[in-house]
Amino acid sequence: MEFVYHDNKTDSVPSGLNHQTQSKSVLTDLKVIVAIPCFNTEHSIGQLVKRAKTYASEVIVVDDGSQDKTSEIAAASGARVIKHHINRGKGAAMKTAAKHADCDILVFIDGDGQHNPEEIPMLLEPIIQGKADFVIGSRNLPKSKLTSNTIFRKIANKGASCAISFVITVVQPLANFSQHPHFFLKNQGLKSIPITQNLEYRVLNGSFKWITDCTSGFTAMKFDNWNKLNLNSNGYQIETEIIFEQARNGFIIAETPISCIGNNKLSKLSVIKDGLRTGMLLFTKLKDYSKENKKATL
Fold this sequence. Notes:
- The structure is a single chain.
- This protein is of the alpha/beta class.
- It folds into two domains: about 110 residues, Spore Coat Polysaccharide Biosynthesis Protein SpsA, Chain A; about 160 residues, no CATH class.
- About 40% of the residues lie in helices and about 20% in strands.
- It is built from nine helices and twelve strands.
- Helix 6 packs parallel to helix 9.
- The protein is globular and about 50 Å long.
């Protein structure tokens, strides 16, 4: 069950840095919605909503069954709040946000305060410039700024990123080759620079698609592409699944460096448990993907 709160208050919000204000002016003809899935985040949600509103036409907060004042604070801060009656998982909250969104670009940002809303224009830039369909705010690029995160968590993220990179670089193209060999040769072959560097972001437009941060909760995408993604996960695995689906559909992926406060007390991600779930999800999706391609060739 979902409860929708409406709040029409307007708040005075700092304009942000000069280059970010300039980026916002470019967005006058685009509708950007910032969606915030959250659970028990009364400590951070108010300021997060107010700061995100600077760069969005609307902020949607999906309260995933919180037992604190997350919904009330978010609504008072100017967000449209949708509340799940019970905790259904981060993936379910993101799906709920997308169901209620109507925009050109959809931005997801975690509600626990670890990401900086002033960096939203950095994620929008590759999409606005027509260079990408989906942008990941990466914590692992050379210019990223990550604080207070454990080595174990970094290693786990690196391993998961290697796994999804292998899947979208090797496994998916091989499946496409079995069905459309000419397409494979045309799009995947003979690229001397597989990853192009452009200002602060990198576009994964070659045959080798190296993902540096597959568990980032700070992403942006063309909203028209959302309904083309076959998303099964209702938990944290949805972040990796979205990458899988973006690549499966042939959408261009980019990454941009972000700053992040990786406070383990704020994070609800169980590295081992959710890592295993992500692995099983990718295995299942690959198996289904292979079956689909076999049927298509018959």
